[in-house]
Amino acid sequence: MPDEADILAPSAPSCLIGNIAANQGCLRLPRKGRKGRACLSTILTAAASRMLENAQEDLSDMQISQGDGVQPVCGRCSKSSRPCRYAQHRSATIAFRHSRLSTLVAQAEGFTKNDKIDVSVSTQPPAPTPVVTETTQVSSTSLFPNEPAVSALPADDRALPHNAIRYPASESGEAASSPSFPRNPYTVSPTAPIPRPGLFYRHAPRRLTTIEGELLQFFVQNIGPWLDVTSPERHYTYTVPRLSLQCTLLHTAIMACSAHILRLLNPERTELSSEEDKYQSTCINLLIPILNDVGSAVQDEAVLATITILRMSEQYDEYHIDRQCHLVPGAFAHLDPSAQASTRTGGLLQATFYSYVRADIRMAILGRCSTKIAVSSWPLDESYPETGADWANRMTWLLVHAINHCFGRECPGLLPRAQLDELIDEWRSNVPDTFEPYYYEEQERDSFPVIRLLCSWHVVGLQFYHTAKILLASHFPPSPPHTTPDTNINTNNILTYHHHLKTTILPHVHALCAISFSNDHFGCRINASHCVAMGAQFLTGRGDQWRVIEYFRMLGTENAWPSRACLDMVGMEGV
């Protein structure tokens, strides 16, 4: 039985009884002159007695810590000649810092904060608790029987939702708001529970083979950053690979995409062809029945991310043989309408959406046709962008409107052209200073200056800005007094058009090419290869034309990026 000296010991307590004494704080003495004032010793004795009684009552059902750490009997218990007991740690407890992703996965699998955790008491010292870092995958323990353990994400990934429809409840009990991004009017409630196929998640984290490890590493180091050009959170670099360890659909998509691109970069590695075919077949067989269940499948981020990854692989085919099987027009057609169209970043779903839009833009420019995604279903977000990535996404959506004005004039839902011109000019006037180059240098033997920007989304935003200006200026040149605004280039006014070309179009062409040539982020290069090809048609200098041709040959040689359509476009006349 502990004594008063043990309880009132001045040293910092670490065992249970010492903690109780410390938590009492300083004893308050009666003020001088108050009636019934007791002496100090009486007060201390009474307080000690009360604390001892409370400690004895709570000792049996409270967790007892390790005291001063001496095992098997801590120093305080040895001094007081009392049994030293330790709390036995529950084996299912995982020591990591929680991200919002892991919380949402847990909620999706039925785990709630109300689940009771029984803590048993043992007379044996506890085994040391392993510390799991954020980048460590926990494979042996889980909060759920036969369920995958979810590793935590980096601090900048903690705002990532896992499922686009099932949102966690807030502290007030209300459902949290859904991610804000372009919405379609045909969908179900964002809080409705969504059934998921058994093959979709619900399996333990896989152990990768040697070839799978290589393919996943290639995805993390290359393909993920290419898809994350407007995602500061780098969802395809961090989040998607980790989800793939527990999601067969994502895993097979990543393996197929990586094997395909690696095979193109290393033609001598013939074994990659069979790996690609194997994973591609498995992924498609899983994806088709999921897509047939339109009511639930397309609302899950993993399904949409899978489509995006497959589309990335598909884009490595030359334009004339690209079947666009995974540029699915209705991929985002069944999301909830609770929010207006938004350019805000902040989720895997939005990163996937804008990756899809950029792929759609590429095919529209190469094919000189309207985009597949219907602009009428996604009204422009009128809120003020908050981050550089938000500004880049806003220009992405303005470029979609510009493309449809130029190549699909019957397309409903377009912004009026005058308003679109105004919005594009306002974008350039109001864009943050971070979009200004940190390095600029004129070249003596090259008409394209060196223009270097800090972030990939700065590059993408300005690439799309200059592309939109080139498209609109070339398709809607200033009209002579006797023509209508929609009249095409009037061949009787060659001098007028030549002046328009020199003063309005070519400055944007040179800026677009200079930005694309100066920044070596491959995601930005492939993002604008078609834009450069479209703009390079207006270049008149032979040296400038050869510089563009060398650029496309470099993309094909070093990165296996298909450039035949771009080279053909450079040789075409007009837009």
From TrEMBL:
GO BP: positive regulation of transcription by RNA polymerase II
Ranges of biased composition (kind: Low complexity): 170-180
Keyword Glycosyltransferase included in the entry's annotation: no
Region (Disordered): 170-190
Organism domain of life: Eukaryota
Ribonucleoprotein recorded as keyword: no
Record keywords: Nucleus, Transcription, Transcription regulation
InterPro entries: Zn2Cys6_DnaBD
GO MF annotation terms: DNA-binding transcription factor activity, RNA polymerase II-specific; transcription cis-regulatory region binding; zinc ion binding
GO terms under cellular component: nucleus
PANTHER family with a match to the protein in the record: N-ACETYLTRANSFERASE DOMAIN-CONTAINING PROTEIN, TRANSCRIPTIONAL ACTIVATOR PROTEIN UGA3
Protein name: Zn(II)2Cys6 transcription factor
Source organism of this protein record: Aspergillus eucalypticola (strain CBS 122712 / IBT 29274)
